[in-house]
Amino acid sequence: MGRWVRNQGIAVRVLGAIGIALIVAVAVGAGGILSMRTMDAGAQEVATVNLPGVHAAGELRVAVDDLRMEVVNHLLADNVADKTAVDQKILERTQGVQDALAEFEAITVDPEAAPIIEHFRASLEKYLGLVQ
Questions:
Q1: Of 16, 39, 66, 81, which is most buried by a Cβ count within 10 Å?
Q2: Verdict on whether the full-model pTM lies above 0.85
Q3: Strand, coil or helix: what is 78?
Q4: Which is nearest to 127 in space by CA: 70, 78, 59, 84?
Q5: How far apart are CA 92 and CA 101, in angstroms?
């Protein structure tokens, strides 16, 4: 095989090298396209499965933080009128937490998350019992 290549002219050798390079480039390109398809499927899964749950968890965290701020405001209020006004806000924020939790539960389909949600719900009920 080596002798046959040496016996060929320079044009044939150059064309052969270009042909081999072209075949390698096509193989690398095909591998890249297949890899991109896999990455696209993964990105679609993240966008449709993971991100809504992360967004709902973020909304739940914001709702809980808002509730805690109102509880602090209630503790810092120095007269009955202010405490009564903050009490109404606490009720509104409590409803916001309940709504955010319901949204999170509706989105989360992972069976491993169920015990975590139940623990959070129990802790929330205990916290609300102390607040009210």
A1: 66
A2: no
A3: coil
A4: 70
A5: 14
